[in-house]
């Protein structure tokens, strides 16, 4: 009697796609939470109105796209912030 070999490649691919989808959802949630908190501070502390807030949202969207597509790295952003503002922003580990 011949034994059939079970190939779990499809199961592994399915699990990888599911994990990727969960990671993408977590990243999108973190981006949205950061955007909300940033807009809250900009409005409450610095008096941003709708027009300035919308420009901020657009600029953040462009920066996020540039980062996602490899046109800028977080290290480059950190260096620019340090060079221009003298601030060090530590990333969570």
What attributes characterize this protein structure?
93 residues; 3 helices; mainly alpha; single chain
In short:
This protein is mainly α and 93 residues long.
Molecular structure report:
The structure is a single chain. The chain is mostly helical. It has one domain. It is 74% helix and 0% strand. It contains three helices and no strands. α1 packs antiparallel against α2. It is elongated. The protein starts with 8 loop residues before the first helix and ends in an 8-residue tail after the last helix.
Structural class: mainly alpha
Tally the helices.
3
Question: What is the C-alpha radius of gyration, as a whole number of Å?
Answer: 21 Å
**Spatial gap, N to C terminus:** 54 Å
Q: How many discrete structural domains?
A: 1
**Unreliably modeled segments:** none
Number of strands: 0
Oligomeric form of this entry? Answer: single chain
What does the main sheet amount to? Answer: none
Instruction: Quote the average pLDDT.
Output: 91
Portion in beta strands:
under 5%
Order of helices and strands: HHH
**Overall helicity:** over 70%
Shape: elongated
